[in-house]
User: Fold this.
Amino acid sequence: MKPFTERLERVQVEEKVNIPTLDGQGIANTIKVKVPALRDPKDGEIYYDDEATALLDKVKARHMGLLMPDQIRCLRERLGLTQHEISALLQIGEKTWTRWETGRERPLRSMNVMLCALNDGRIDVAYLRSLARRRKTGPVGSLLATHSPAILGSKR
Assistant:
């Protein structure tokens, strides 16, 4: 008897991809996509490999208007920023950014709008840095810097 992985056949299947509504509470649309898959001839079970999963994810993201992980990484690299630097400018955790770049998570739609604006040149790094300076020097920023410098990532 052949091992499980050796008996699988390469096939093309049509998969339904549900596109959620803006509020995430329902399905706005269902799209059919042809993807490569593996089929077990013994029981007909279909399995998706990484290529198929990535293709389905890309279709869903495109229809939702979300940037793909490689686009997010390329944006940061084009801006000449480290993950730490861009995370600080966007006021998010560095691990959050890393998860976006690797595709383990997707940015919220509101953050995706910000990333698209940054990607399209509607806002720039200089503007984000000016916001960060205001946070540090404004009334709340001064209070935080005095009482909790770790919050702003600065030292006394």
